Amino acid sequence: MLINSGPFNGVPSLDAIQKVTDDLATRGLGRHTINYRLRDWGISRQRYWGPPVPVVHCAKCGVVPVPDDQLPVRLPYMKDFKPLGAGASPLETVPEFVNTTCPKCGGPAKRDCDVMDNFLDSAWYFFRYVSADDDTQAFDRELVRQWLPVDMYIGGNEHAVLHLMYTRFVTMAFHHLGLIDFDEPFKKFRAHGLLIREGAKMSKSKGNVVNPDFYLDDVGADSFRTYLMFLGPFHEGGDFRDTSLIGVRRFIERVWRLVDENEISDEPPAGMAELGPVHRAIKKVTQDLEKLHYNTAIATLMELTNELYKWPRQKREAVETLLKLLQPFAPHVTHELYERLGHPTMIADDGWPAWRAEYCAVEECEFVVQIGGKVRGKVVLPVDADENAVWEAAQAIDAVRKQLAGKQIVKRVFVPKKLLSIVVKP
Ligand SMILES: [Zn+2]
């Protein structure tokens, strides 16, 4: 919503773009235009490796595409394929390749000696994936309809700029040509973060990469895998530390002992005290997985494990739920424990647990918000709300905002389940 913008105050910013632009145009000060972020893109290269550009140059007909039945144009065998320099392609030195006949008039013609940049192929390879064995066409339209667009694309941040723009460009071009029914290649894109180790980005050139084999032998695949998902938000990456890895290994061991060293009762969990933590965990882990919030999902499973340890006896439904929720992170251990619980089937095949809303409700309470010792408002939040959550909610109260306007906050005092007191400079 625009503020401090004269006649445009209160206009939603998306509408305002049009309105402000129109206003500038009527006053002769500007006009509407679109700036494309995709710059000119040279796809031809003067080198040996790459698919030859499939056109021939005829003195009479100009540029003529190679007919479908003569595709693909294959590279000739060359012993010395070093680039010639000065913008010339090494293919120009192979007369058998260069000299051909024009598909249109049958006269003498020359093949194009440039090859296509590998970027071009990496911009549409996923269309080919659906028809990898098809010798007759680039892709089968019916299969593309079934499988594409891609539901989720995960890559490094460097993908988010160039590669993704080329991919969108090629997909839009295919759409424009009527070859496909959609014009965006990926429904969602998520970039993963980078790992930090000993204060530096983990990279081969810095020499601080770790060899997974060492950790697989040392702590096992499940611990290593769970740790990688736990060490930080997936889209931000995190700090790789051996000591934290051992913490995750202990967690996996705790789950193992909980299930393997206890007698498991078939009696179902009962009451809010037991069903509450189980169903809240199902809900949290399920929703976190959708959002790729793996680290908080694992933290939730650690809490659930601690909770189950407090129970006088272990109940099948609860421990099997824990195993199913942990299974994406620690597939081997959970499958083994599931088998020990008497299941002949794979844990991954036995469905994902469903939460029931009536057990997910969190107990709420009232937090008093004080400023300079005076009560200025109250907020109702879950009992376990932390200082930041209460502070955020408090700022939504008009009276609080008014009292804080222009004042410097000296400190905030927080009493869990009760009070947030804000001390301001008089
Ligand atoms: Zn010709």
Topology, element by element:
Layout: H1 13-26, E1 44-45, E2 55-58, E3 62-65, H2 95-98, E4 99-101, E5 108-111, E6 115-116, H3 118-122, H4 125-129, H5 141-147, E7 153-155, H6 162-176, E8 189-191, E9 194-197, E10 200-201, H7 212-219, H8 221-230, E11 237-239, H9 242-260, E12 264-265, H10 271-290, H11 294-310, E13 314-315, H12 316-326, H13 331-340, H14 357-360, E14 364-371, E15 374-382, H15 387-394, H16 398-404, E16 409-415, E17 419-424
Parallel strand pairs: 7-8, 9-11, 12-13, 14-17
Antiparallel strand pairs: 1-6, 2-3, 2-5, 4-5, 9-10, 14-15, 16-17
Helix pairs in contact: 7-8, 8-9, 9-11, 9-13, 10-11, 10-12, 11-12, 12-13
The structure holds zinc ion (ZN).
Zinc ion is lined by residues 58, 60-61, 64, 102, 104-105, 107, 109.
Architecture of the largest domain, according to CATH? Orthogonal Bundle
According to CATH, the fold-level topology of the largest domain is Isoleucyl-tRNA Synthetase, Domain 1
Per CATH, the superfamily of the largest domain is: Isoleucyl-tRNA Synthetase, Domain 1
CATH class of the largest domain: Mainly Alpha
- Report Rg: 31 Å
Average pLDDT score: 91
How many domains?
Answer: 5
Biggest beta sheet summary: 4 strands, antiparallel
Word description of this protein:
The structure is a single chain. It is extended and about 90 Å long. 38% of the residues lie in helices and 16% in strands. 19% of the residues are buried. The protein has five domains: 1-33, no CATH class; 44-118, no CATH class; 123-191, no CATH class; 208-361, Isoleucyl-tRNA Synthetase, Domain 1 (Orthogonal Bundle); 364-424, Roll (Ubiquitin-like (UB roll)). It is an alpha/beta fold and 426 residues long. The strands form six sheets. Strands 3-2-5-4 form a four-stranded antiparallel beta sheet. The chain has a four-stranded mixed beta sheet with strand order 15-14-17-16, with helices on one face. A three-stranded mixed beta sheet has the order 10-9-11, with no helix packed on it. The protein has 16 helices and 17 strands. A hairpin with a 3-residue loop joins strand 16 and strand 17. Bound molecules: zinc ion (ZN). Residues 58, 60-61, 64, 102, 104-105, 107, 109 line the site of zinc ion. Zinc ion is lined by residues 58, 60-61, 64, 102, 104-105, 107, 109.
